[in-house]
Design a protein that fits this description.
transferase, five-stranded parallel sheet, Oxidized Rhodanese, domain 1, elongated, 13 strands, alpha/beta, 371 residues, Rossmann fold, eight-stranded mixed sheet
Length: 371
């Protein structure tokens, strides 16, 4: 351990040489090397955590660069775990790095968590959050968790035996379509840095056993109002994994989808819609909001947002044209919901563009940006 590197830590009475040695002897697993994982990994490596295992099966995409600050334009297409390990090794060669380019599954998660002193959850989907939580509860390992969307964030430390776990507070995932993903709802790039830094701080406090960690408190942040609120949360005695009579004995996958199912909705391919548009034989209606349409849109489509289908105001707007209707969104989930609502509200059938604007960009017009 190089004293000069950690001099500002050594000056802190709460840290000192003893705290720095504890960090050097620690092993942390960070699930996800994206928006949250990037600042977490950077600060833990800079702080001198002895071993960092970074788990991410994804590759760098152009849309990541707005918030995932470990990556650069030249990294597009490369595995995130590999690139992150390179950056962290350059930042601090004292740290032992173990990049794992693999998917977090029921079969793999327990092995990933085994032997860790602490786990940080930087993932962006509900199914993985439940898996990671279950593995940490069963291994007795504290979990530093966060979630970000748009301008809002939540942060907590889930630690069964000391306070609630994730399932205690969120026993079930949301219904399909209830919560948009960051890819649909957007996220302020800087918010990932703000919240990732909070996660890193909580992790360092736990590893050094200093301060009061966010156990039994859910930190809620509104970046637009620049407010932070701490909401008390309690262990649930009926929790399926950490309660008095647990029913989950191994990490369990929750069936979760961020969009409504599309199996029962008639669809049409991008190539077919392109041919119909050339003959003016179809009316293409985009159900996304203005912000998404400003990024990418199909020429000749018109905007009627999904909210108008939900409140019924769209029905009169679409009644003045007898051409076949094709509804479109980013990838097909929201347009499928709109097709169902239209049929239920008016009896009129429509089709959903299979794969949405992303399929249009891939199969018809590569000049349309993807996001």
């Amino acid at each position: 351990m190089t004293s000069a590197r950690y001099a500002r830590h050594l000056l802190l009475p709460e840290v000192g040489a003893a705290g720095q040695r504890r960090l050097a002897a620690s092993r942390v697993v960070v699930m996800g090397a994206g928006g949250l994982g990037a600042p977490v990994l950077s600060y833990l490596a800079a702080a001198g955590v002895g071993e960092l295992t970074l788990v991410d099966d994804d590759t760098v995409d152009l849309t990541n660069l707005q918030r995932q600050v470990l990556f650069a334009t030249d990294d597009i297409g490369r595995p995130k775990a590999e690139v992150a390990a390179e950056r962290l090794a350059a930042l601090n060669p004292d740290v032992r790095l173990s990049p794992r380019r693999e998917r977090i599954t029921e079969e793999s998660v327990a092995g990933l968590v085994a032997g860790a002193d602490l786990v940080v959850d930087g993932t962006d989907n509900f199914a993985t959050r439940y898996l990671v939580n279950d593995a940490c509860v069963l291994a007795g390992v504290p979990l530093v968790w966060a979630s970000i969307l748009r301008f809002d964030a939540q942060v907590a430390v889930w630690w069964a035996g000391h306070g609630p776990c994730y399932r205690c507070v969120f026993p079930r995932p949301p219904e399909a379509g209830q919560v948009p993903s960051c890819a649909e709802g957007g996220v302020l790039g800087a918010l990932a840095g703000t919240v990732g830094a909070v996660q890193a701080t909580e992790a360092l406090k736990l590893l050094m056993d200093v301060g009061d960690p966010l156990v039994g408190r859910l930190l809620v942040h509104d970046a637009l109002r620049q407010t932070w609120d701490a909401v008390p949360v309690r262990r649930d005695p009926g929790c399926a994994v950490c309660g008095d009579a647990p029913t989950i004995r191994a990490p369990r996958t929750e069936q979760v989808t961020c969009t409504v199912a599309v199996d029962d909705v008639p669809t049409v391919s991008a190539q077919e819609v392109s041919a119909l548009l050339r003959d003016d034989a179809v009316r293409v209606v985009d159900v996304r909001g203005e912000a998404e349409r400003s990024i990418a849109a199909i020429a000749g489509s018109e905007a009627v947002p999904l909210e108008a289908f939900r409140d019924g105001s769209a029905f009169a707007l679409l009644a003045d044209d007898e051409r076949p209707l094709v509804l479109v969104c980013k990838s097909g989930g929201r347009s499928a919901e709109a097709v169902r609502l239209l049929l239920a509200g008016t009896g009129r059938a429509a089709r959903s563009l299979d794969g949405g604007v992303l399929a249009w960009a891939r199969d018809v017009d590569p000049a349309v940006p993807t996001y």
